[in-house]
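Q: Convert this sequence to structure tokens.
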Amino acid sequence: MAQEISVTIGVDSEGNEFVFSLTQSPHALFAGTTGSGKSTLIHNILCSLIENHDDDKVRIFIGDPKRVEFYRYAGTPHVERVARDVIEHEKMLRKLVFIMNTRYQIMENCMDENGLPVVSAYNQTMYRKDEDGIKSFSLPNIIVVIDELGNLVLDKQSGKNILDSIIQLVQLGRAAGITVLLATQQPTAKIIDTRIKANCPTRIALKVTSRVNSRVVIDSSGAETLNGYGDALVLLPTSSNKIRVQCLGMDYKNIADVIEKSVQKKLAKNTFNNQNATEAVKPQCKVIDLASLKSFRDSSVGKSSGSKYISPN
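A:
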């Protein structure tokens, strides 16, 4: 069945927990200067996904051009891949475009109420097949998180290919169950292509350096006056009003605890499944006494009395 994918990022001005749905507004754009809390926000999102959703329902691809921020997620069951240099990013994004196109071919006969092929309609069909006893598989939601977009799109060799892949994903990825979250320190028109901005309805602006940068992200000024350290303005597709949010703090101990808990949960699940599989195929046979077996073998070849083997011929 379709699964609601939502993340908790902080509290609003009234002290209420702020949660936004990646299912309803799939693609998002984040921007903030150094020290604004942008990396902490991404950690919040990743930990929320890992802690609240099963790894067979959510698969995560991470782009980490800085190479020091998100590498620790590489061993997490939810995380499919962590790209670090530009070449790895180009390969990862090309693979995601291939996955997206393949999913459209798989889903071409599964339509939603509007007659459009979407991953939720496909999974609903597969769920009904499972109920009928027909073996099937569902498509997990794919979350793509890319930090420091500017470092990638401005690369002289691979920048154009990376930008083209990202544009394809944000334009066509939603129906295929692919969500793209992009972050940058430099919210300029040169980095944030208009096609990317048009297809990222959720925008989160942390402290930026100027009004111009604020307008690029949330279409108005205001982000330049924020306090930093997780203070943010959030623009959702369901409202034209900006929401003031204080993003939650996340230290490395919290992150390590979430990752360890996820790994232990996966190990326990695998152990349980292996035990069930062993019980299911366990042969129904008698226990054979090894001493009796040895005696029988020796007597069969004439060695029980110390004699040599004599051929019956």
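The chain has two domains: 6-250, 251-302.
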